[in-house]
């Protein structure tokens, strides 16, 4: 198991209001190389869960193990990709991708070799010296993916990484992400609002209930990739997941 | 804007000045533009034994660089620490609020009592004047650093001084730079005012005051124009560098 989530819950203490239970106890095991999508209504604690895996927040209850060892804070085994605004605008694409290597003291030449490889992997050759503001939204997220991969993490955490993109770019990015995933075999935990995206990408879809988020259902997606969005099996799984989410929202 | 729209007001002012000076016909109240231009055209010429306009202006600039430089050296690190640490902010914020509204010139008597008349007093006044704009902007810039940038840095292994040098400072740099620009403007106003105090005997502010004593109104006006030009020049320099260095800021989204 690459990620073991043991009965993890999170309660936020707030100064002004009652404490907020963002996440009820969640137990989940994610295998090495698995692509897991997390779905759930807004505010059910998806981001909170991802942040706790990344070591940016600490669980109130339970524990999180990555490759057998507990996560106690930001950790080189984990990389996280945010929805947007995470690139450093004063750094070029190359310098952004090289950031973590630079922070960990990798020598310049080695850094450049690794960086160039990942810039090529995400299809941005020729843009290495551009600044983020010169790139489109899709290209920026590719830089973020390259930056995350350059650290060679065990687990890639993605919080609605394509949520701010238009439908067409989004579809292309999903395809490219799958190609990269097939080449690198990273474990991916992918938070999304889109059932379609989850069915297209994931090996397993985790559906959380409304706040406080609890495990509501797990769908295995068995059919092979590349998946055809117009196929019957795709449509039927998408309908099942959507129905469950509708029920969850009505029962709220 | 079309360039000729920009030149109309100054031309109009110049014309009005010319007409007024002819009507008033008294160089001790309003000298003609020509007589002022003559002073400006020979900026290296000695004026009543007090040195040239250029010499005095350079001296004033030097004083500003000293006072402003000292202020930057103190205010930027202080601002970064205050902006980073909430506790320190809460500790010193009352002091900042207390001292900030005191005009730099209100410090003159204290400056004289502590440092006597001379360079140290002038530098002190400039220091006080430029310290707060730099401090306030630095605190603000550091405090507003995008949380995602910091968390991304933590995830990718930046901690301590590395986080500061590679993320916090570059992210706050545009705000700090604005502080420097504003601070320099205040410093420039302070030096001119401080040099007009009794007891000083050099600098562009002094030259103006001295010319007043000798009824050389055309030198006063010429000196004022030089002060204005240097002020604009410095501001322009700051803005040009800002445009070049912090281009990312405008187009950042
Ligand atoms: N730092 C915090 N302090 C207090 N409450 C918080 C904090 N962070 C999150 N919450 C609360 O926890 C709950 C879960 O938030 P979270 O961001 O994890 O939801 P989400 O599932 O990611 O939602 P969305 O789909 O809208 O991104 C929300 O009710 C939110 O208000
Ligand atoms: Mg979220």
Report on the structure:
The complex is a heterodimer of chains A (252) and B (253). With 252 residues, chain A is an alpha/beta fold. Chain A folds into 2 domains: 30-58 and 154-252, P-loop containing nucleotide triphosphate hydrolases (Rossmann fold, 3-Layer(aba) Sandwich); 88-152, no CATH class. Chain A has helices at 46-54, 93-97, 99-103, 108-121, 137-150, 167-184, 195-201, 232-250; strands at 3-12, 20-30, 35-39, 61-66, 69-70, 78-81, 155-159, 187-191, 204-208, 215-220. In chain A, helix 6 (167-184) links the parallel strand 7 and strand 8. The longest helix of chain A has 19 residues, at 232-250. Chain B is mainly alpha-helical and 253 residues long. Chain B has a single domain (57-251), classed as MetI-like (MetI-like fold, Orthogonal Bundle), CATH 1.10.3720.10. Chain B is built from 11 helices and no strands. In chain B, helix 2 packs across helix 10 and helix 3 (53-84) runs antiparallel to helix 8. Chains A and B meet through strand 6 and helix 3 of A and helix 7, helix 8 and helix 11 of B. The structure holds adenosine-5'-triphosphate (ATP) and magnesium ion. The site of magnesium ion has 3 residues of chain A, from helix 1.
């Amino acid at each position: 198991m690459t990620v073991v989530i043991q009965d993890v819950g999170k309660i936020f203490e707030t100064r002004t209001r009652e404490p907020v239970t963002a996440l009820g106890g969640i137990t989940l095991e994610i295998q090495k190389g698995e692509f897991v999508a997390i779905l759930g209504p807004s505010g059910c604690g998806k981001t909170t869960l991802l942040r706790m895996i990344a070591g940016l927040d600490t669980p109130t209850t339970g524990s999180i193990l990555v490759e057998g060892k507990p996560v106690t804070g930001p950790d080189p085994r984990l990389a996280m990709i945010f929805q947007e605004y995470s690139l450093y605008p004063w750094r070029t694409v190359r310098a952004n991708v090289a950031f973590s290597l630079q922070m960990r003291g990798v020598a310049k030449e080695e850094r450049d070799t690794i960086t160039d490889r990942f810039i090529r992997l995400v299809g941005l050759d020729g843009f290495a010296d551009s600044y983020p503001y010169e790139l489109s939204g899709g290209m920026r997220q590719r830089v973020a993916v390259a930056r995350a991969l350059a650290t060679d993490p065990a687990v890639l955490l993605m919080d609605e990484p394509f949520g701010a993109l238009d439908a067409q770019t989004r579809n292309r990015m999903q395809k490219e992400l799958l190609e990269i995933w097939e080449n690198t075999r990273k474990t991916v935990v992918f938070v999304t609002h889109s059932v379609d995206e989850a069915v297209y990408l994931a090996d397993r879809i985790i559906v959380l209930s409304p706040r406080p988020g609890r495990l509501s259902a797990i769908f295995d997606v068995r059919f092979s990739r590349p998946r055809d969005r117009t196929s019957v099996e795709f449509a039927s799984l998408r309908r099942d997941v959507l129905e469950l989410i509708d029920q969850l929202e009505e029962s709220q | 804007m079309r360039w000729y729209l920009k030149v109309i007001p100054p031309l109009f002012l110049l014309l009005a000045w010319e007409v007024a000076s002819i009507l008033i016909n008294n160089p001790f109240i309003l000298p003609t533009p020509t007589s002022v231009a003559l002073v400006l055209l020979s900026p290296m010429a000695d004026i009543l034994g007090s040195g040239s306009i250029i010499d005095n202006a350079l001296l004033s600039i030097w004083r500003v660089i000293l006072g402003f430089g000292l202020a930057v050296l103190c205010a930027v690190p202080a601002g970064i620490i205050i902006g980073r640490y909430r506790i320190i902010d809460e500790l010193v914020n009352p002091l900042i609020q207390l001292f900030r509204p005191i005009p730099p010139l209100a410090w003159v008597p204290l400056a004289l009592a502590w440092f006597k008349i001379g360079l140290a007093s002038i530098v002190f006044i400039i220091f006080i004047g430029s310290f707060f704009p730099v401090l306030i902007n630095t605190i603000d810039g550091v405090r507003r650093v995008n949380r995602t940038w910091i968390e991304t840095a933590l995830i990718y292994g930046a901690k301590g001084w590395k986080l500061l040098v590679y993320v916090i400072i570059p992210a706050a740099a545009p705000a700090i730079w604005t502080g420097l620009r504003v601070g320099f403007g205040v410093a420039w106003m302070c030096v001119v005012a401080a040099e007009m105090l009794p007891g000083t005997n050099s600098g562009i502010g002094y030259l103006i005051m001295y010319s007043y004593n000798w009824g050389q109104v055309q030198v006063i006006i010429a000196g004022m124009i030089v002060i204005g030009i240097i002020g604009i020049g410095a501001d322009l320099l700051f803005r040009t560098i800002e445009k070049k260095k912090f281009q990312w800021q405008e187009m950042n989204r």
